[in-house]
Amino acid sequence: MITVKPFPADVFTTVRDHDGNTGWLHDCGAFVYSPSQPHRCGVCWSALRNRQAHNGSWQRAYITREVSS
Fold it and tell me: 47 CB contacts (<8 Å, ≥6 apart)?
């Protein structure tokens, strides 16, 4: 199972997953790898939610792989 987890803004300055990649989580739940905050959300843009796509509501996030038991 893969889990996307947001980081608290006041704890980390650089966020990287186990492979060293940086990521961002949008308010709609979309996750994207990017070294800097994305300009717009591709998921919202594709769904014609253009105002939400450009609102800048991104949080730094990372992905973890969890072994199912």
Answer: none
Q: What is the mean pLDDT of residues 31-56?
A: 88
Label residue 51 exposed, middle or buried (CB < 10 Å: 0-12, 13-18, 19+).
exposed
How many C-beta neighbours within 10 Å does residue 50 have?
12
Tokens of 63: 């992905």
β-strands 2-6, 31-33: how paired?
unpaired
41 DSSP 8-state letter: -
Confidence (pTM): 0.65
User: Hey, what are 42's tokens?
Assistant: 């591709």
